[in-house]
Design brief:
The protein has one helix and 16 strands. By secondary structure, it is an all-beta fold. The chain folds into two domains: 102 residues, Nucleic acid-binding proteins (OB fold (Dihydrolipoamide Acetyltransferase, E2P)), CATH 2.40.50; 114 residues, Immunoglobulin-like. Strands 1-2-3-5-4 form a five-stranded mixed beta barrel.
């Protein structure tokens, strides 16, 4: 009889497909119960590795899916040959395996969703806060120092200024944090305690250069005005202004 199990005489039962988890709903994954979500696909979630455990020929990592707040912890079991380091960002795919129950080194109970990882790819910090727009590069002089802004990334969680200083003068150049104004309002600098972005050197010798990323609070309006101030070889105060319009 069509649609009937010939051994039981009853219609077959089908387990509904589990919802797939991506970066768009990763918070639901991290807060979910791994036993209830067992078998759910995990497609390209991003996180920061904070612990790597190699034991009995196996490999498991723990990562924050919300590294800015050190939250959204998950465990990922990976093939033992996978190359992975602590403090790196990664993109993970696989399936939900179970809910790990145990204790940490201080005897505190842990209950963490566990993923059977089938793909591990290194990522970068900006991948977790991708730019909604990127402003083109500009170059200008500040005294005898060439300042090149390679690009400005405007993202939901931050504004990132990729800059390079080249000291063409005869005295050390002392880098100062620029002032940033967006839509007429001052934008505060964000302090990157995680050191995900390299800062330019604070002092640059004659003939040397230094590159880095300056991170500021997110902006919602343009024009964006970035002002660098400093002193020339005669110790006169100088400044240069970069203006960006979307």
């Amino acid at each position: 009889m069509p649609g009937v199990n010939r051994y039981t005489g009853k219609p077959p039962t089908f387990e509904p497909a589990k919802e797939a988890f991506t970066q768009d709903n990763v918070s639901e994954l991290a807060s979910g119960d791994g036993n209830e979500l067992k078998g759910a696909p995990v497609n390209g979630i991003l996180g920061k590795v904070f612990q790597v455990q190699r034991e009995d020929g196996g490999l498991a990592i723990q990562l924050w899916t919300d590294p800015e707040n050190n939250e959204g912890e998950v465990i990922v079991v990976l093939p033992p040959e996978t190359e992975v380091k602590e403090d790196e960002y990664a993109e993970i795919s696989g399936t939900v395996e179970s809910q790990f129950e145990g204790e940490n080194g201080f005897g505190v109970p842990l209950s963490i969703l566990r993923i059977n990882g089938t793909s591990y790819e290194r990522a970068e910090a900006p991948d977790l806060d991708p730019p909604t727009s990127t402003l083109g590069g500009k170059t200008d002089m500040l005294g005898a120092t060439t300042i090149k802004i390679r690009k400005v990334e405007i993202a939901e969680g931050s504004t990132r200024v990729y800059v390079r200083f080249t000291n063409n003068g005869s005295e050390d150049f002392t880098d100062t944090t620029p002032s940033v104004v967006a839509g007429g309002e001052e934008v505060e600098q964000s302090y990157d305690f995680s050191e995900d972005y390299k800062d330019p050197s604070s002092s640059i010798s004659p003939g040397a250069l230094s590159s880095g990323v300056l991170v500021f609070e997110p902006v919602t309006e343009t024009p964006l005005r970035i002002t660098f101030s400093g002193f020339n070889d005669n110790f006169d105060e100088v400044k240069t202004v970069f203006t960006f319009d979307e």
